[in-house]
Amino acid sequence: MTGQAAEQGIKRFFRPDHPVQFVLGLAIWSLWFVVMYAALSVGCGFFPPVTETVFNLITPTLLLFTLLIMLLFTVLALRSWRYSRHAQNLSHMQRFTVRVGLALHLLAALATLAGALPVLVLSPCV
Amino acid sequence: MTEHHNSAPAHQQHLTQIWANLPGWRSLAAVNHGTIGLRFIVTGMLFFLIGGVLAMLIRTQLALAEQTIVSAEVYAQLFSMHGSVMMFLFAIPVLEGIAIYLIPKMIGSRDLLFPRLSAFGYFCYLFGGLIILFSLVLGIAPASGWFMYTPLSSSEFSPGPGSDFWLLGITFVEISALAAGVELTVSILSSRARGMTLSRMPLFCWYILVMAMMIVFGFPPLILASILLELERAAGMPFFAVAGGGDPLLWQHLFWLFGHPEVYIIFLPAAGIVSTLIPVFSGRPIVGYRWIVIGVILTGFISFGLWVHHMFTVGIPQLAQAFFSVASMLVAVPTAIQVFAWLATLWRGNVVFRLPMLWLCGFLVVFVCGGLTGVMLALVPFNWQVHDTHFVVAHMHYVLVGGMFFPLMAGLYYWLPLVSGRMPSDSIGRWGFWLTFIGFNLTFLLMHLTGLLGMPRRIYTYEAGLGWDWLNFISSIGGFIMATGVAITLLDLLLHFRFGKHSAANPWQADTLEWAMPLPPPQYNFASLPTVNSRQPLWQQADVAEAAAAAAEFSHSYSGLRENWGTTPLNARLAKILCLPGNSWWPLRCALVLAVVCISLLCRQYGLAALAAVIAVGLLLCWSWQNGARLLSDKPVITQNTELRFDYQTTDGPGRIGMIVSLLANAVLYMSLLFGWFYLWTAAPLWSSVQQGPVPVSALVAGGVILTVTAWQFNRVCRQLANGDDTALLRRLCYCAATGITHIALLGGVFVVTPLQYTGSAHDAVITVVLLYLLGHACLAVLLTLLQAIRVRLGYVGRSAPYEPQVIKPLWLYYLAVYWLSTALFFLLPLGWSAT
């Protein structure tokens, strides 16, 4: 495979009608979940906050990370949405993939948002 | 070769001959999915009966206060075995059996793509199950509960062999589950009927695809945990002992990393049955096909983020608990999507209340109740109150019996005519259902109250006057009513083989492809390649049954062997011809020798175990050698204007996908080990890492460089073959093997010279396991490369048959990745951390 062909090969994975969309959003959610839990555990183990309030280093770090992930979901969902509206002559399978992918990106975003809400109200290491 | 058009009986006779099992006792060598699937189901139901008898003994003991029918020790064995048998020997294997039996028929295929692996999985399951049950006969069964918490299950508090029976037997059974997970995934992706795109695939197949992937990702953590605990018990490696730097909570994490997804591994196939049956008995397509697919995928992922809700009382920070609490509530969303889709389908359809539909109604009522108590348990404060009480027992039974047993019965009744060609008795079946339904609710609805009144689970008796007496008494009566209902149902299923009325074709007016076959179906399922252009082929395509039985494409064997069509994963376009292996004794032989390994370990005969393990590896390699392709032809086949190649003539195929899926499971096992390492490092109270690592890192890096060269060379060989060039192939493979052996020598040297105190420190114990893991992979990769070199010399691999090295390539790449990852995270990172 030439360099250009390889690049094309990799790029096609990110097309909104590629079946990787079935798992991409939720794989990102899984990564977010693991990082949140691991960061909290390691943060509390090695850098415990001095006070038991939400004003500490761990909470903003977790929130910032969540914000980045939400941004990523927004981009992915927007891409799928635009593709489903503008792409011509999509096959049954492609339409199915784009729509399922779009819904899964949005639901993954929702799951991320719901999971991050407790960070706003709970002290991290108590 | 060109297409021949034979007369219908002749081509079917030809296929029957090729696909037949051996007669009499030699049918033990059968590998056909129909035979193996039915064996799984029947064996699972027998284990279910044993688990049921244990449940009745438990209910008899608890019926009245202060009873001493059985002792505390025997009671502990009863509930541990009841849970283990029902979860590991009944629920998962029976559903796997149904999937193994149905999936090829539903996707329009002739068999699963690794039929000998199916047979091997069955024998592993059978022998593993018998080994566990044998402990019960000897009165030394595991007694630490079905989730075997440490330190209760450790040698200090469970010195007998009970825990060993569980750990070794369950691991043996899990080989079977993983085998099923791999082959179901590959078969669904690679051998669907032409035109059956993923968007037209029956919903049951979506459920099984997600379940199979969940098995691949969910089972390895428990396999690792079982290996570590057995190593602790047998060799004194302190992974879970605080004094040695371990932590008993690591077991809980690893167990529930498997344990909670397992609930969904059990639920999803059952929900797949529901999604298949409801449209049939409503007489209309399912409402929200796409939403159900979304719900199933969502369930598959989110169910891996719930495991800590089993551990809310162990002292985890409240924010971490909140993450898992929210995820536990979120998982109700995809389940609710499915429930509403089912209700909408019933609402919009004309429901016919045949026997399977009755069980589905029971499912909807019981499972929704179980789901609601599940959301209650996801709330941390409520969870604390009812933790380890009978409330949890009641919830679990509502979810598992409601979510698995009721749909299972519906499915068995529904697909019974497909197996036997006969119909069950409607009146006996209704008696069975109502007694089961009433008995179940009498037992477990009241058990919620027993739990709320404070009765702990797993106590063998209780004092009178605590308010639990009448509740337990009624629960026990309910238990016996339920047992009567189950007995009547099973009797009905059994008797119908003799007395049931002969079934007409497609007796339920179903829409899926399995009903396009004659009843009972032939071993090869479809005489010719079916074409599907709708989600409901039997409702939309009038001639599909006739076309599938006619003498057309694939209606004779091009190679004289068992053949199946290989289609592309997404769009199901015809891509190649797959040669499938036939009847074989290899699966039985290998499983028998592995059983010897298991029993030798139980008896602490480590020499014999090592010898048997070596023989097992040898047999498995012989099996792989015999399964490998023999060059039948180097020319493509022309079928109806399409040029097709055999899989061994190409560079991609089911074997390669199977290897990748297996490596995914392997990667999860490795990641679980990595998790354990970091967990002990950050959480174990007495963890001690060393300032100067005991392992010579420079030697590891040198080994890594040699490995990189080897993997790069192997990769080059594969690319060269893919480009149709086999110049100096043998020499290059030998060169790979030689550098691989140098790498093994270096790594082995590191292992031998490093003074690891694996019985004194959890740190060194983990390092020992990591080094052994790496060495095992290195040996396997080199052995397989050597075998390839021999096959090149014999002419089985070359320009005309470039496939096999492509199957091994992912193993080399995987090993290269984990080697460098291990060097970085297990050896370099701790040194850097200590330095700072």
UniProtKB/TrEMBL annotation, chain A:
Q: Which domain of life is it from?
A: Bacteria
According to UniProt, the name of this protein is: Uncharacterized protein
Which species?
A: Rheinheimera aquimaris
What keywords are assigned to this protein?
Membrane, Transmembrane, Transmembrane helix
Q: Which residues cross the membrane?
A: 20-42, 62-81, 102-123
Q: Does the keyword Membrane apply?
A: yes
Source organism phylogeny? Bacteria, Pseudomonadati, Pseudomonadota, Gammaproteobacteria, Chromatiales
From TrEMBL, chain B:
Q: Domain Cytochrome oxidase subunit I profile: where?
A: 19-533
Per the UniProt record, which EC number(s) apply here?
A: 7.1.1.9
Tell me what topology the record assigns in the membrane: Multi-pass membrane protein
Name the InterPro entries for this protein: Cyt_c_oxase-like_su1_dom, Cyt_c_oxase-like_su1_sf, Cyt_C_Oxase_1, Cyt_c_Oxase_su1_BS, Cyt_c_oxidase_su1_bac, Cyt_c_oxidase_su3-like_sf
The record lists the catalysed reaction(s) as: 4 Fe(II)-[cytochrome c] + O2 + 8 H(+)(in) = 4 Fe(III)-[cytochrome c] + 2 H2O + 4 H(+)(out)
Does the record bear Transferase in its keywords? no
Note the SUPFAM superfamilies from the entry: Cytochrome c oxidase subunit I-like, Cytochrome c oxidase subunit III-like
A Pfam match is COX1
* Top-level lineage group: Bacteria
Q: Where are the transmembrane segments?
A: 36-58, 78-103, 123-145, 165-191, 203-229, 263-281, 288-310, 322-345, 357-384, 396-416, 428-450, 470-495, 586-602, 608-625, 657-681, 693-712, 733-753, 765-790, 811-833
Q: Which Gene3D superfamilies match?
A: Cytochrome c oxidase-like, subunit I domain (1.20.210.10)
Keyword entries, A-Z: Cell membrane, Copper, Electron transport, Heme, Iron, Membrane, Metal-binding, Respiratory chain, Translocase, Transmembrane, Transmembrane helix, Transport
Q: Where in the cell is it found?
A: Cell membrane
UniProt entry tagged with the keyword Lyase: no
Question: Its annotated pathway?
Answer: Energy metabolism; oxidative phosphorylation
Q: Which family does it belong to?
A: Belongs to the heme-copper respiratory oxidase family.
Protein name (database record): cytochrome-c oxidase
Its source organism is Rheinheimera aquimaris
